[in-house]
Amino acid sequence: MATPIPPQQSIHPYQTSSELEPYKIPINTYISQNSDHLVGVLSASVIIHRGRVLLIQRIADDDWPNVWEVPGGVANGNEKILDCAVRELWEETGLRASAVMAMLGEFE
């Protein structure tokens, strides 16, 4: 299992597009700008490679035992939304994202 990155430490560099600018801000800022309907942010990575989607399975004694899901988790304090997705991918799989391509959606 990969070693978690301390929140104050920057993650490895990755490329992204200008359309993702709204998600390159700290979580706390994003929540305050959307406080009418948000109380927290969870970020996840959907990895599609050669037509296959990467899923990971939760451990048997987890809150949601043995559930298959995409890598993701809760953002830390002033962490940027995109950084959270990249960090969670690395923490949960050991994979390093070289690029963040698109935002798939927001769900309440």
TrEMBL record:
UniProt-recorded Gene Ontology molecular function terms: hydrolase activity
Domain Nudix hydrolase: 34-108
Pfam families, alphabetized: NUDIX
Record flagged with keyword Hydrolase: yes
Keyword field: Hydrolase
Keyword Amino-acid biosynthesis: no
InterPro entries documented for this protein: NUDIX_hydrolase-like_dom_sf, NUDIX_hydrolase_CS, NUDIX_hydrolase_dom
Superkingdom of this protein's organism: Eukaryota
Protein name: NUDIX hydrolase domain-like protein
